[in-house]
Design goal:
The chain is mostly helical and 456 residues long. The protein has helices spanning 13-47, 51-86, 88-97, 99-121, 128-157, 162-165, 168-172, 177-200, 208-237, 241-249, 256-290, 297-321, 339-342, 363-371, 384-387, 393-402, 423-444, 451-455; strands at residues 325-327, 331-332. Bound molecules: heme C (HEC).
Length: 456
């Protein structure tokens, strides 16, 4: 615990990162896909002397510039803001391990945004050849920024041999690297294609251009969906056996009803994602490819929604499968390194190791903030008031003690990090949890409670 904690109630910290990240991923993957779509289509239009397509691309690139360079960049900073505040320990480890990659990402992104600005403003001012080259530079650097980040994202779920070898190449080019890169690249292409159909669908129904462009985009998208489904199967097949097992069975190793319910949710969400991508692919084939005349912007919006559901479930599944780790086999979601729970006895003081404590906090609150808050709030996200309802302080203590037991006697080890703390600290935590639940219950009953009397 080297950093201050940001105390988040309600939806909990996980959802803050999740919402910003999903939004950013949608925009940035669209940026990569558009990066490939723009110069490819420009090359085709120039070869066929199609001024109308060039005009379409000019419009497309303006919207594209604003969306990716402004919304994409700002939401990207949003991710740094959220992970820095919510998981400072993990962010710091990732920055140290991958500093060279982050530097590369920064350089690549800089070229990406500058080339897009030149691409947009250069339609009239540059020779077609130069303009086309700038387009390719944009496409390459946009894809490279996906390439660089991909290794870090996959590392968090499948760090491979790195926790033992500490070899950078093992960390970066981990098992998930190539399949995830292919999955993400295909998502990018399909997002850009769907957006193009959106624009095209607004053109007059009998325009030749509309029909041609839909056919052209379909020729990209139909195979993309087939490949996407195949690459998802490849991706899942590279996951370590225990992860895959829990995903397939919807079980988390027999951990109480609540755990059962939650892992079942991740299995369902993964399934939802796969169904969404299949439905979108088929929907595209039937609507845009087979019936281009009747294709409307509403259908386009439905396809986009299908992809958004898929992207959100893919990211959710990936994040959830990491639990209880933020970096599998290395650091738990609450920022406690695995090493800290295996090398030293668990019944040592935790709060003494905290460099920052919430102002005027009790021992119990410090324990909660340091070890539980990453995954539970008291009454919102994965709420502890419901999970501990009906228990008194002693029975909560007994439950916490199980979290200190060795793996075999601790059914929670696959979903929760082991608990560090002296007997006094664990007792303080159980009292804190019990008292906080009392306050919540009394509030729910509408009784006014003197908070001060409960906090002591
Ligand atoms: C890495 C995330 C994580 C951390 C940190 C964590 N938990 Fe959990 N906890 C879970 C998950 C996942 C479950 C099982 C699914 C569920 O109940 O939603 C769970 C379940 C529980 C349950 C229900 C157990 C049952 O038998 O039904 C309790 C109580 C609980 N946690 C308390 C705590 C306390 C107290 C702390 C802090 C010392 C803590 N958790 C830290 C993720 C975490």
């Amino acid at each position: 615990m080297d950093y201050p904690a940001w105390i988040v109630g309600g939806v909990g910290p996980g959802w803050i990162i999740g919402l910003i990240a999903t939004f950013h991923v949608l925009i940035s993957q669209f940026a990569v896909g558009g990066g490939i779509f723009l110069p490819t289509t420009e090359a085709w239009a120039r070869k066929n002397n199609r001024e109308d397509v060039i005009d379409f691309l000019k419009d497309f690139s303006r919207f594209f510039l604003i969306l990716t360079n402004v919304v994409g960049a700002i939401s990207g900073i949003g991710i740094w803001w959220a992970i820095g505040l919510i998981s400072p320990q993990a962010s710091s480890s990732l920055i140290r391990l991958f500093s060279f990659i982050w530097a590369t990402e920064w350089a690549v992104f800089l070229v990406e945004i500058i080339s897009l600005v030149f691409y947009y403003y250069g339609w009239e001012k540059m020779s077609p050849k130069v303009h086309q080259t700038i387009g390719w530079i944009y496409a390459t650097t946009a894809w490279l920024s996906l390439f660089t980040i991909n290794g870090i994202l996959t590392f968090m779920l499948t760090p491979g041999d790195w926790p033992t070898t500490h070899n950078f190449m093992h960390a970066y080019f981990n098992n998930g690297f190539w399949p995830a890169l292919v999955v993400r690249t295909l998502i990018c292409i399909s997002l850009a294609g769907i957006y193009a159909t959106f624009v095209v669908s607004k053109m007059p129904q009998d325009s030749r251009f509309r029909k041609e462009l839909l056919a052209y985009t379909s020729s990209w998208l139909v195979p993309t969906y087939g490949l996407l489904i195949a690459s998802l199967i490849w991706y899942f097949s590279t996951l370590p056996a225990p992860i895959l097992q829990s995903l397939l069975s919807g079980l988390a190793g027999g951990v109480g009803k609540a755990a059962f319910g939650n892992m079942a949710i991740v299995s369902r969400i993964a399934l939802l994602g796969i169904l969404a991508v299949i439905t979108t692919g088929l929907g595209f084939f039937v609507s845009a490819y087979l019936n281009p005349r009747e294709f409307t912007w509403r259908k386009s919006a439905l396809l986009l929604a299908g992809m958004a559901i898929f992207v959100a479930s893919y990211e959710y599944t990936r994040e959830y499968l990491r639990k209880p780790y933020v970096i599998r086999g290395f650091m738990f979601s609450n920022g406690v390194p695995l090493k800290a729970t295996t090398k030293k006895p668990l019944n040592r003081s935790f709060t003494e190791e905290m460099r920052f404590k919430p102002k005027d906090s009790t021992l119990g609150e410090q324990m909660f903030v340091g070890q539980c808050m990453a995954c539970h709030t008291m009454s919102g996200y994965r709420a502890l008031d419901k999970r501990l309802a009906g228990r008194d302080s002693e029975s909560i203590y007994q439950l916490l003690i199980i979290m200190q037991k060795p793996e075999k006697e601790n059914p929670y080890h696959s979903v929760m990090p082991p608990l560090i703390g002296t007997e006094e600290e664990v007792r303080a935590l159980s009292a804190y949890l019990y008292d906080s639940i009392q306050v919540i219950e009394k509030k729910a009953k509408g009784t006014k409670v003197d908070k001060a009397s409960v906090e002591n």
